[in-house]
Amino acid sequence: MTIHVKNNIHWVGQRDWEVRDFHGTEYKTLKGTSYNSYLIREGKNVLIDTVDHKFSREFVQNLAAVIDLASIDYVVINHAEEDHAGALSELMARIPGTPIYCTHNAIDSITGHHHHPEWNFHPVKTGDSLDIGNGKQLVFIETPMLHWPDSMMTYMTGDAVLFSNDAFGQHYCDEHLFNDEVDQTELMEQCQRYYANILTPFSPLVTAKIKEVLGFNLPVSMVATSHGVVWRDDPTQIILKYLEWADQYQEDRITLFYDSMSNNTRMMADAIAQGIHEVDPSVAVKIYNVSRHDKNEILTQVFRSKGILVGSSTMNNVMMPKVAGMLEEITGLRFRNKRAAAFGSYGWTGGAVDRIQTRLMDAGFDISFPLKTKWRPDGSALAECREHGRQIARQWALQPLAVPRSNTTHATAVTTATVIATPIATNDAIAMNNDRGMLCTVCQWIYDPALGEPDQLVAPETPWAAVPESFLCPGCGIGKEVFEPCTVGNRK
Ligand code: FEO
């Protein structure tokens, strides 16, 4: 089966309605997904990407019904992960000498997965092009870490189609292929879920890459992703949406999540939420029990929020394990520009709340005061929880809030031991300070000015501002644009 995309481009991919897990069980694909592969028949016949390995046989069978496989001139692999390059072994067994165009990193990944170093690889870099006849070319754009170090996009001149692979995609299955044909609410929900759960850590790179691509001033009539829809109606909408999401995104929204042994922490969550809503009815407030709700939905809500409240009962003097797991994920997603605080019920020591506060601070949140309640909250404790919610609502308000007269007394009665993280200094200020390092926000490698980077002829004691713009992170190979100021070792 094929679907006509544009002129001589056809979709030859695979829908997967029933898949429910991705990346092991870390990402729940509640709406299924698709693996989009494209066949271009111009002067040359070109296959862009394949499908997931579990559909290898069906994919090659379907493709052979559409085109004589031996007449495929080039295979382009934008990304080596098994959901896109998975059918290569089955395909290349039929056309073993066909040139494969991919990044240098992808040769390593593809060989590591398929164990065929003899395949006819042609490594490409950003700006390289391939003539496919009829006056059209494929232009390659490396996009490392979107989603793997080997990722790239392929732009087809003439038809102005950007084959973007993972970027701008969604885990979303529909019999329709184009963005204007599907339920818009479902579509954008899945786009945001995908971004929040997969791409958030790479937001600085998303911004830099999109600006780089826009800098080419190429017309884009379609964005042909490798998961979900092809964007043909206003295709730049998803590019602009990515720019918005990558820019420390937040809405006027607060998310509470917790785990609760005896319902006591749940009672606290409800009362805190009531207090928030009472003072600021305009803020969206959502509550989730991590034991009962979809993890990826909670992480998406965190992504959307200006602040989060994380609760746990104290168990063996630590937090409950599912809360710890969520905090580990949140740390890895490297959210920025968000507030947070801990809460929870305890019986003896209340160690969970202290540990959550520390973990939130380590994860880069601006920390507000925590709240503990001993045993089951009674009427007085619940009143304190509601007052805590009112305080949070005022402190986290995006605009000044009117303080109702009836709340004034309470507002001053509760301790507000707020701890705000030290603001990050500006890049310019740091760049001139030779005592500070620069952190690669993609792979966490740190540039230490005292050491320089001898492999790139950057001498010791070279401040960041003097490091050449051609500098590439030794850890992940990405440029200066993804670095942020940080401290180095014990120096300040
Ligand atoms: Fe859709 Fe990174 O694979």
UniProtKB/TrEMBL annotation:
GO terms for molecular function: electron transfer activity; FMN binding; iron ion binding; nitric oxide reductase activity. Keywords: Cytoplasm, Electron transport, Flavoprotein, FMN, Iron, Metal-binding, Oxidoreductase, Transport. It comes from the Bacteria. Residues 254-393 form the Flavodoxin-like domain. CDD domains: flavodiiron_proteins_MBL-fold, rubredoxin. Residues 435-486 form the Rubredoxin-like domain. InterPro entries: Anaer_NO_rdtase_flvorubredoxin, Flavodoxin/NO_synth, Flavoprotein-like_sf, Metallo-B-lactamas, ODP_dom, RibonucZ/Hydroxyglut_hydro, Rubredoxin-like_dom, Rubredoxin-O_OxRdtase. Pfam families: Flavodoxin_1 (PF00258), ODP (PF19583), Rubredoxin (PF00301). The keyword Zinc-finger does not apply. In the N-terminal section; belongs to the zinc metallo-hydrolase group 3 family. HAMAP family: NorV (MF_01312). This is Anaerobic nitric oxide reductase flavorubredoxin. It comes from Craterilacuibacter sinensis.
